[in-house]
């Protein structure tokens, strides 16, 4: 109760100090904040529930992704770290430290086979304008760099959960209390009978069948 009250008070203090209400106030671990979404982008049609629990330590961002209502657990077993896992089923976080609409941000993905995709995205148009530059710089040795991941499938309950650790040094953001971030969270859904078509589900609706729209990113305050 005490932790919750403190978090709410800090969140409120930030909102009144800046007149920008964050979408989410992210606490120090083991407290958590949860981003939850249940709709497709851009249509707003229903999507099975996805949650992302977030918290920070002095050196890492911790994310727990939970996909409910999962029926296919669909991935390509041949794909390994930094493969095109986004063609199948993944949960994703786009992450930027700062308050503006980013042109470069980190794209993190995990699939039901515990495989991750780790890349900085270069998107200078901010909306992946056709013909504009759009590039990726991969983190080639995430586990050597301090990333961690653990993915658990719960088929009887149509659910999969992935717990991830992302080093804050990646963002020059150690001891992040008081910092502002922009992020969006996504989930893709497909299966053997629908591949390569996907349902695209998202926290903040980008208004397009694309995830790479940075003005849509939510605002998160680390408190
Ligand atoms: C997921 O992958 C990570 C990194 O290779 C490994 O440490 C972890 O044990 C794996 N978890 C599962 C459930 O396979």
Main sheet overview: 8 strands, mixed
CATH class descriptor name? Mainly Beta
CATH topology: Immunoglobulin-like
Q: Termini distance?
A: 16 Å
Structure description:
Strands 1, 5, 6, 7, 8, 11, 12 and 13 form an eight-stranded mixed β-sheet that branches. A five-stranded antiparallel β-sheet has the order 2-3-4-10-9. It has one domain (2-222): Sandwich (Immunoglobulin-like). The chain is 9% helix and 40% strand. It is built from two helices and 13 strands; from the N terminus they run H-E-E-E-E-E-E-E-E-H-E-E-E-E-E. It is mostly beta strands and 223 residues long. The mean pLDDT is 95. The structure holds 2-acetamido-2-deoxy-beta-D-glucopyranose. 2-acetamido-2-deoxy-beta-D-glucopyranose (NAG) is lined by residues 114, 143, 149-151.
Summarize this structure briefly:
With 223 residues, the protein is mainly beta. The chain is built from two helices and 13 strands; from the N terminus they run αββββββββαβββββ. The longest helix is centred in the N-terminal third of the chain and has 17 residues, at 2-18.
Name its key features.
Immunoglobulin-like; binds 2-acetamido-2-deoxy-beta-D-glucopyranose; 5-stranded antiparallel beta sheet; globular; mainly beta; Carbohydrate-binding domain-containing protein
Which SSEs are present, and which pair or pack?
Blueprint lengths: L1 H17 L5 E3 L6 E7 L6 E11 L3 E8 L23 E7 L6 E7 L5 E7 L12 E4 L3 H4 L2 E7 L4 E9 L12 E10 L9 E4 L15 E5 L1
Parallel strand pairs: 1-13
Antiparallel strand pairs: 2-3, 3-4, 4-10, 5-6, 5-11, 6-7, 7-8, 9-10, 11-12, 11-13
The structure holds 2-acetamido-2-deoxy-beta-D-glucopyranose.
Keywords: Signal
Protein name: Carbohydrate-binding domain-containing protein
Organism: Coemansia thaxteri
């Amino acid at each position: 109760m005490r932790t919750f009250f403190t978090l709410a008070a800090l969140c409120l203090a930030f909102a009144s100090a800046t007149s920008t209400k964050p979408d989410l106030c992210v606490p120090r671990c083991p407290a958590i904040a949860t981003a939850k979404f249940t709709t497709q982008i851009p249509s707003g049609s229903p999507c099975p529930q996805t949650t992302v629990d977030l918290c920070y330590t002095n050196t890492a961002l911790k994310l727990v992704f939970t996909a409910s209502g999962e029926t296919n657990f669909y991935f390509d077993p041949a794909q390994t770290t930094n493969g095109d896992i986004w063609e199948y089923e993944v949960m994703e976080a786009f992450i930027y430290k700062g308050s503006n609409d980013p042109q470069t941000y980190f794209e993190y993905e995990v699939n039901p086979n515990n495989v991750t995709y780790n890349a900085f995205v270069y998107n200078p148009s901010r909306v992946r304008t056709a013909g504009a530059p759009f590039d990726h710089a991969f983190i080639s040795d995430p586990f050597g760099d301090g990333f961690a991941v653990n993915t658990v499938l719960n088929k009887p309950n149509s659910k999969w959960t992935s717990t991830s650790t992302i080093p804050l040094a990646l963002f020059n953001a150690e001891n992040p209390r008081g910092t502002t971030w922009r992020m969006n969270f996504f989930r893709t859904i497909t299966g053997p009978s629908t591949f390569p078509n996907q349902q695209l589900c998202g926290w903040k609706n980008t208004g397009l069948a694309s995830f790479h729209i940075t003005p849509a990113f939510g605002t998160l305050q680390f408190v």
